[in-house]
Amino acid sequence: MNEPIPHDVSGESECDHALVHLYEFLDSEMTPADEQRMRDHLAHCSPCLSELSAEELVKKLVRRSCSERAPEALRLRIRTQLTVMTKA
User: Largest alpha-carbon pair distance within the chain?
Assistant: First the structure.
């Protein structure tokens, strides 16, 4: 995993920041300072906390619903196409 890059906070409200970076927070892809900033904001902002809860639910539903693996023939075909595309 790449090292998270600190967020530029100029010109961005706390709610704007929270909503733009919600998935980084959910996926633990923030710097410790940005993660703490997000936690501090969510502790005092009900609308952003509600949005976080909704996004967490969506991620859980997708994770639970996407447990099937693609057939091996399809996986091989996709891998071959990706290889061809990267060589072009």
Answer: 50
